[in-house]
Amino acid sequence: MTSETRNADNGLISRSVVTRSGDGLSAAKAVDLDGDADVDVSANTVTLANGSVQTTTSTYVAATGTLQSTSTAVVSGNGLSTTIDSDLNGDGTIDRRSTDVTILNADGSGTRTVTTYKGPSTVEGKTTTTTSGDGLTILTVWEALGQGVTRSRTETVVVNADGSTTKTVSESECIRTAQ
After folding, report:
1. Which residue from 52, 151, 177, 178 could staple onto 142, CB 3.0 to 4.6 Å apart?
2. First-to-last CA distance in the chain?
3. Degrees, nearest 5: CA angle 39-51-19
4. Cβ-based neighbours of 164, under 8 Å, separated by 6 or more
5. Considering only CA atoms, which of 103, 100, 55, 68 is closest in space to residue 82?
6. Residues 6+ positions from 143 with CB-CB distance below 8 Å
7. What is the DSSP string of 41-53?
8. Average pLDDT per consecutive 10 residues, the chain (179 residues; last block may be shorter)
9. Are the beta carbons of 93 and 70 closer than 8 angstroms?
10. What are the residue boundaries of the structural domains of the chain, listed by start?
């Protein structure tokens, strides 16, 4: 499928071409953002054997067509886990990684952890949010690793006898100093 934007003189402003595989398990998109007939952005999506979906998006330098950056996102088949690896300068090395993982417990509670990394493995920060099974209590903890700072926030909702609710929010911050 091709989609184009043209100016009043019918000159090409931008073009997007999407190609899908016959089995529907993969797709490729090429985008010309400035109408110069060069691909400025490409995205390739494939469904993996385990049901996960992987999308790799690349940007290119307009003048030379050389790779500028790439990011690869993998979303688990159940949608509860996402990992994004980013090569910010096109040198083939992961400069940034982020993960977003949700765990659902049998009692209806859940924990979502979002972690950011410098490179593929050095943790920079982490946010963990735990929600009670009834949804009335939410605990969020932010950790700025390497900076010695941890903040937390607890939200608790109480349903009163008359049906009204009372929400209590408490926050705390812990700053660790080097010993």
Report:
1. 151
2. 62
3. 25
4. none
5. 100
6. 125, 126, 127, 128, 149, 150
7. EEEEEEE-TTS-E
8. 93 94 95 91 96 96 89 97 96 96 96 94 93 96 81 95 96 74
9. no
10. 1-77, 95-179
